[in-house]
Amino acid sequence: MPAAAVELLNVRKTIGGRHILDGVSLTVHAGEFFALLGPSGCGKTTTLRLLAGFDRPSAGSIRLSGQSVDGVPPYQRDVNLVFQNYALFPHLTVWRNIAFGLEMQRLPAAVIATRTAEALGLVQLHGLERRYPHQLSGGEQQRVALARAIARQPSVLLLDEPLGALDLHLRRAMQWELKSLQRRLGIAFVYVTHDQEEALTMADRIAVMHGGRVLQVGSPAEIYERPTNRLVASFIGEMNFFSGRVVRVEGATLCVQWSHTVLRARANSEVRIDPGESVTVVVRPEKIVLGRTPLPAYENTLAATVEETAYLGTAIRHVVRLDDGHVLCVWQQNLASQPQFRPGDTIYACFAGQSAHVIEDPPPCRT
User: What pTM was computed for the model?
Assistant: First the structure.
């Protein structure tokens, strides 16, 4: 198991009686690209500020490289923070912006020059040393902010939605550059984002946050394929939900009575679910196959009518209504061999039991 670069131990942050963070415990391994993902107000930026030392937790403890940093000021922590707005000094050149933090550390001039040049090379900015921030593109400014942060050689780099101000094309290009940079540096990145695709693309592991709590931690595949609760399933991509009751357990497969149909879906191996329990079957839109007749290869087959179709280039998005009125979203890859469907067509929505996943319904609220 890799050493822990960051540990949050039951951290709480309360402001004016409101719980911004409510018992957050996380471990980020050394050399790991770790994403904090969630909607606005979920507590992810507050978590980053606590790690940087700009705020103090109301309760709990924070460790960096195994050492407690409770009460340690920001300038004494072995971390650096890249802001969303870059926070570059407009009156300083690229070189001076990068060297500024090293100068504040009163390092020898030769060390400052070496580290600044190395940081420029890592972010591919050689030749722009004499330019000022207003002479740079958004992507170049973002690189300067990164170079300034890594020049100090922190053990952990904190990034607060650093690509948020970039257009979509540049944002995607910078995602791959950031991931490549992190691998070359070999240090832990803690990356805050509300963009699901960004987290799935870049992170080794993701913590999904909501309401000041961590709902699930796992690899991108685990978070996407096996969400542990409805909030995670709803937030990460599109999802179809079928609420029902377990009628049989067949090994790793649960048979769930939904409407007038028994659906087959795989169980969560970490949770014991018995017959009679209320559960929700979830299935991703791309896991559902449409056919003009039932498809025998799939355990689950539901009669439906196409209501809407949307051409998205790489895929066709269908909205279909089942016989009982339930609405599903279905993604169909844009292949010449795929059958074409139009609104009003009577079809069958089919999916394998292994493509569906069961999550427990939350217990009823007590009054």
Answer: 0.88
Q: Which tokens hold the place of 136?
A: 């740079």
pLDDT in tens, 287-315: 999 999 999 999 999 999 999 999 999 89
Beta bridge partners of 33: 189
Q: For every residue of 90-135, which 3-state class applies, written as one string?
A: CCCCHHHHHHHHHHHCCCCHHHHHHHHHHHHHHCCCCCCCCCCHHH
Contact status, residue 19 vs residue 212, Cβ threshold 8 Å: yes
pLDDT at 366: 36
- Whether residues 148 and 255 share a domain: the answer is no
> Range of 268's domain?
238-360
Question: At a CB cut-off of 8 Å and minimum separation 6, what does 27 contact?
Answer: 4, 6, 7, 8
CATH number for the domain that contains residue 225: 3.40.50.300
Spatial CA neighbour of 123 closest among 166, 180, 172: 180
Q: What is the pLDDT of residues 315-327, one digit of tens each?
A: 999 999 998 899 9
Choose the final residue of a domain: 203, 231, 259. 231
For residue 55, pLDDT over 80 is answered with yes
Q: Which residue has the tokens 């101000």?
A: 165
